[in-house]
Write a structure and sequence with these properties.
This protein is α+β, with helices and mostly antiparallel strands. Helices cover 52% and strands 15% of the residues. It contains 10 helices and 7 strands.
Amino acid sequence: MTPSSDLAHRLSRLLAAGSGCLPRPGSGQTLRRWQALADVAAEDLALAKLFEGHTDALAIMAELGAAEADPGAVWATWAAEPPTARLELRRTPQGARLTGRKAWCSGAELVSHALVTAWDEQDRQCLAAVAIVQPGVTVTTDGWHAVGMGRAASGDVLFDAARAVEIGEPGQYTARPGFWQGGCGIAACWYGGALPFADAVADLVRRRDDPHAAAHLGAIDTALAAARALLAEAACWIDAYPAASARIQALRSRAAVEEAVGNVLAHAGRALGAAPLCRDAALAQRFADLPVFVRQSHAERDLAELGRGLVDGAGDGEQAHGPRL
């Protein structure tokens, strides 16, 4: 079995078991949703990438009032828009048609349907649902040469007047509350992806009385505990204010979890040394995968947006120093 077919099989089993039907963000069980995402990420980051995309697509369609998805479909959410790859949506008497190139299409060879962002004749961003297996859709491996997250196969997909169904109204994809709620869910995946490093260092400490390894484990636990607490706080806030924008909560959580992941990787690498990078295939793959996955963050750009948001929203209870205890 090839790596891609194995990943497809595991994703299908996960969805068939009902794991894809997670509580929607803001439903009162947001933390349970994120815990499920983190659990899958702790198992396999490439699997989590596809699983998160599928569950995000279902939540988006439900929020925007789309028809219920075929229970046998496997969905992706492709919303990246680099300047070199932009889709056009044209409305015709026969329905919406998509033309152009879409980049960073995770799992394009493995999914049956995707939600994609595109731009209409009035240069408005739209969202459309599209079946992948149809004339006018060509899946490629262009632009994807990754070692980390390589199995997610996030290549380019070409569209040539492909049939699609418009979802929601122009601009609604990013304006809806679920946009930033889903952004927090990505951070839950990053958090889950870091957990096996804590386990590996803990195993080392159990086997060997090494004060340096124990210190690294303490640092890893501290970083993960802080990230976990902030995710739990964000989930509670979203459930309390499901119709509000969670932009500040998402940017803050993502920044904190990204920093925690960086600390975990640094401490785990120093504690474990070269051996797992060379002799433990699963952990070596995770050392390659997690930094690539976390680069879904926009780093300083996100921090700058957080800072501006804190100042702009200072009258709405979000002070520049953060919430009071």
